[in-house]
Amino acid sequence: MKTEINRRKFIVGASCSLCGSLILPSCTQVPLTNRSQLNLYDNNLPIVIFQGSVGGIPIPKVYANEKSLNQEIDKVYGKFLTKAKEDNVLLDNTVESKKIETIGKEIYSSLDKYYINKKEKNPVEGFNWQFALIESETKNAWCMPGGKIAFYTGILPVCKNDDGIAAVMGHEIAHAFARHTVEKLTQSSMIQMATLGISNSRYAELLNKSFKVGNVGGNVYNSVVKYGIFLPFSRRMESEADYLGMGFMNLAGFDIKEPAKLWQRMMADQEGRMPEFMGSHPSPDNRSKKFLEWESEILDKFPQV
Ligand SMILES: [Zn+2]
């Protein structure tokens, strides 16, 4: 019964927002790269993800706006830290953990300065950046929306030096800066909504307008899978995070020759198994080349602040 009410509430909410914007603005642009990005929040629409069902009715999880999403992520990250502390794997006040924090801070404050110099508003000025170092063999690092970052000690030997850490850090900060998770949630949300037939036509219309995949009204999910929107998008996001990350590193005065070297080390370090950090990062060879291609553009576009 409770679910039913939530669902109705949501439908009313979504309809109001839709009526409020007769002309759907659809795509916005990622700052600094100007890639077109679909973000429901920029369209004044909530992100709704359905999880399981009660009595055949899917349970919607509504993230009303970016602020409330980030508040939720804050809690999730807090729980992650508490659990890590309980398990004695949260490295606090060690030389390495301080280094992670310092490098993270250097990069995000350089980004701040960059926008101050440009006399523009930093698109992520409200973010409450946090950094954690976890004792684990996992060769990985990640960033949650709103700037919640974690490094695993396993990736440190691959990073090798401060510039290597800055390369991974820049990449993670870039994911948050470009709001890649919101973009992914937007895609999932719209596909689920359209597939479930909730606000079908409007969401499908927006999806269609944004991705130009032809007539998607009938079976959005199949069309999306068929046209491979998800996969290329993920690759584009990764590549965008590489590019922006390299720019952010340079703002903070780190050596932008390091990312290409870092990817070479990652490849050499495979030991027959893909490092976790590379799991979602296709064509490492290709990416190493990209860093070299971008060098002069980065120096020009992202001068040290
Ligand atoms: Zn990534």
Give the overall silhouette: globular
Sheet/helix structural class: alpha+beta
* Sheet with most strands: strand arrangement: 5-6-8-7
The mean pLDDT is 79
> Main sheet?
4 strands, mixed
Whole-angstrom Rg: 21 Å
Estimated helix fraction: 55-70%
Unique bound compounds: zinc ion
- Approximately what portion of the residues adopt beta-strand conformation? 5-15%
Number of E-type strands: 8
**If helices are DSSP runs of H or I spanning 4 or more residues, what is the number of helices?**
11
Distance between the termini: 56 Å
Tell me the series of helices and strands, N- to C-terminal. Answer: HEEEEHEHEEEHHHHHHHH
Low-pLDDT runs of 5+ residues are: 1-25, 212-233
What brief labels describe this structure?
two-stranded antiparallel sheet; disordered N terminus; single chain; globular; binds zinc ion; four-stranded mixed β-sheet
What does this protein structure show overall?
This protein has a domain at 69-179 and 234-301. It is 56% helix and 11% strand. It contains eleven helices and eight strands. The chain has helices spanning 2-20, 66-86, 95-118, 156-159, 162-177, 180-196, 200-211, 220-226, 230-251, 258-268, 284-301, and strands at residues 28-29, 36-37, 47-54, 57-63, 90-91, 130-134, 141-144, 148-152. The strands form three sheets. It has a four-stranded mixed sheet. A hairpin with a 2-residue loop joins β3 and β4 (57-63). The longest helix is centred in the middle third of the chain and has 24 residues, at 95-118. The chain is globular. Residues 1-25 and 212-233 have low confidence and may be disordered. Bound molecules: zinc ion.
